[in-house]
């Protein structure tokens, strides 16, 4: 049984092995497969693009298959649904209105493929959904640690308690190495900012395990036509708050400003080391974005080479400056604010917009309105840090209203004092480069099918994405 090129399947299951086994067989049969780890992630997938069929588990964290099916039946009744669950047929609740049911321990792949083929060729007839615009599904954390999902058109307000990976003790998550009182479980503190109550507000510690080792030299050397070097560098964790349950966007403006101050301090310090050619900040939020520690945190990496995308960006900005004697991001931001079709938010100091050729739905860039090449040299005063913290919070909340998982990456100037830098390479860097954050929502995992390198397929025009983010409801 071979699927057609148009047959897209959304697989929803919280068990990695089940996702891997089923998705592998479906891809081999010719289907295009996207996966989600639970109902909330599946809602994000539905927003990114509708599949031809959904395969879902029932018992999942955050949002169950029952809740997901309620959304699908009311918003997208034309999509067939197959349930694969460990529950017996007699234990399946009456509200599960699936088109087919298989027990996890008792189904054959050939039979499953035949059912998928039949349902995608001739979906069961159902009434069309009501006409009219639908309000977007909202998902956020409330002040009591519940994940709140609201869709006014199709589902009730659902409050799902967080399922912690750690066991709570008398003083919070006792085994979380990033929580207050558990500093002995993580390496030494590199940086701390105290809150005046006898405790740290922001703490920076080496990542365990680190991607790079701080000791030694890069020892760059040729191996035929290839280059080889040691994995020397710094890999640090910025613990953004003592609170295990509060995301960066939910902190106060002042607390986020303390996080920004930590970024500035650590980048400035790491750039004093001539072994490190590039230093950046990145933040992975959510399972789909690869968040590796549950406690809200950012990461800082200092490395002895320029990442390929950064090197391309530096060359492009430098070439534009040679042609026009202007900064390309200054020109872009000026045009975006004037057009106001891809802008998400702007004020006198900062602007956020969805790029003209966005790589992902809701991709957003955040940058200063005035020209500043280096992040750490721009945000040096408390007032500037506080203003940026307030602006960053507003953008992250807008994004989280439509897609809870994302990558946040800082693009700033390379370390011009690096020992192996060629002389004269960065003569116009202060004029041609413009620091910025790039936010890439993680609406779906990487496809197992082949795609052309550095070619992106975006199902949502940036003009529409920006409009939705401008109008996003957040509190």
Could you characterize the architecture of this molecule?
α5 (253-270) packs across α9 (382-402). Strands 11-12-15-17-16-21-22-20-19-18 form a ten-stranded antiparallel beta sheet, sandwiched between helices. A five-stranded parallel beta sheet has the order 2-1-3-4-5. The protein has a three-stranded antiparallel beta sheet with strand order 6-7-8. It folds into two domains: 8-121, 3-Layer(aba) Sandwich (Rossmann fold); 236-470, HIT family, subunit A (2-Layer Sandwich). It is 28% helix and 23% strand. The longest helix has 21 residues, at 382-402. It has eleven helices and 22 strands. With 475 residues, the chain is of the alpha+beta class. The model is unreliable at 1-5, 132-142, 144-174 and 447-452 (pLDDT under 50).
Which helices and strands occur, and which strands form pairs?
Elements: E1 8-12, H1 16-28, E2 32-36, H2 39-48, E3 53-56, H3 65-75, E4 81-85, E5 100-103, H4 109-121, E6 138-141, E7 146-151, E8 155-161, E9 168-169, E10 172-173, E11 191-194, E12 200-206, E13 221-223, E14 226-228, E15 234-239, H5 253-270, E16 278-285, E17 297-303, H6 308-324, H7 328-339, E18 343-346, E19 350-353, E20 364-368, H8 375-378, H9 382-402, E21 406-411, H10 429-432, E22 436-441, H11 462-470
């Amino acid at each position: 049984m071979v699927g057609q090129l148009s047959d897209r399947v959304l697989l929803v299951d919280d068990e990695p092995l089940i996702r891997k086994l089923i998705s592998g067989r479906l891809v081999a049969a010719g289907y295009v497969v996207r996966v989600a780890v639970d109902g909330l992630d599946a809602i994000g997938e539905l927003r990114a693009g509708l599949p031809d069929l959904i395969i879902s588990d029932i018992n999942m964290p955050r949002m169950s298959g029952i809740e997901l099916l309620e959304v699908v039946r009311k918003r997208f009744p034309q999509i067939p649904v197959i349930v694969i669950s460990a529950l017996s047929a007699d234990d399946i609740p009456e509200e599960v209105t699936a088109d087919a049911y298989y027990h996890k321990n008792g189904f054959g792949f050939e039979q499953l493929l035949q059912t998928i083929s039949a349902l995608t060729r001739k979906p069961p007839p159902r009434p069309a959904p009501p006409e009219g615009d639908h309000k977007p599904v909202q998902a956020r954390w409330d002040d009591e640690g519940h994940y709140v999902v609201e869709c006014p058109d199709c589902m009730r307000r659902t409050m799902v308690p967080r399922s912690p990976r750690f066991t709570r003790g008398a003083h919070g998550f006792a085994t979380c190495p990033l929580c207050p009182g558990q500093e002995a479980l993580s390496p030494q503190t590199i940086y701390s900012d105290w809150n005046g109550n006898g405790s740290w507000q922001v703490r920076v510690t080496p990542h365990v395990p680190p991607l790079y080792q701080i000791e030694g030299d890069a020892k760059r050397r040729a191996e035929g036509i290839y280059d080889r070097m040691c994995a020397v560098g710094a890999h640090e964790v910025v613990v953004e708050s003592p609170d295990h349950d509060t995301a960066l966007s939910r902190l106060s403006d002042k607390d986020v400003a303390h996080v920004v101050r930590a970024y500035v301090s650590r980048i400035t310090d790491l750039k004093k080391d001539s072994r490190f050619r590039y230093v950046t900040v990145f933040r992975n939020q959510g399972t789909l974005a690869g968040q590796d520690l549950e406690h809200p945190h950012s990461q800082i990496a200092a490395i002895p080479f320029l990442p390929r995308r950064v090197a391309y960006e530096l060359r492009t900005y430098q070439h534009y400056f040679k042609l026009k004697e202007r900064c390309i991001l200054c020109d872009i931001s000026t045009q975006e604010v004037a057009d106001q079709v891809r802008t998400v938010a702007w004020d006198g100091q900062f602007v956020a917009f969805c790029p003209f050729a966005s790589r992902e739905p809701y991709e957003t860039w955040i940058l200063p309105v005035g020209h500043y090449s280096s992040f750490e040299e721009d945000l040096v005063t408390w007032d500037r840090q506080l203003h940026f913290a307030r602006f960053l919070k507003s953008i992250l909340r807008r994004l989280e209203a439509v897609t809870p998982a994302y990558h946040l990456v800082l693009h700033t100037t390379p370390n011009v004092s690096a020992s192996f830098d060629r002389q004269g390479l960065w003569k116009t860097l202060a004029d041609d480069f413009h620091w910025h954050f790039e936010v890439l929502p993680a609406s779906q995992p990487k496809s197992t099918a082949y795609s052309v390198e550095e070619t992106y397929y975006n199902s949502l025009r940036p003009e529409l994405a920006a409009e939705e983010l401008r109008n996003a409801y957040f509190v």
